[in-house]
């Protein structure tokens, strides 16, 4: 199992969000874009989110440590899960960032080796593995 720190803007690890804004907020955003403070609406929103995350960085750090989350990217290969199975163990996956389960992991292997999954961010796995683990994903 490998842990990697996520880079700022990797295109393959971003998630699209939809938000609802009032027309006055939206107008103010458009004004700031028009005046050249930001290149587009998304740029302003990303900047605002990063500023809020920086403001609360200590709380995030303490919570990650207290709840024993892995911060960044956690990948589980078929070999990783087969080794867990050989040891007769089961994983409790807790990730803040991206958890990924290799495409060649069967639903049966996932069920035999993954007790629970809590991901704050995104989980990448085959549809079959996600369906098999549906009652274990929090």
TrEMBL record:
Spell out the Gene3D superfamilies in the cross-references. Answer: Met repressor-like (1.10.1220.10)
Span-the-membrane segments of this chain are none
A Gene Ontology BP annotation from the UniProt entry = regulation of DNA-templated transcription
Q: Which domain of life is it from?
A: Bacteria
Per its record, how is this protein called by name? CopG family transcriptional regulator
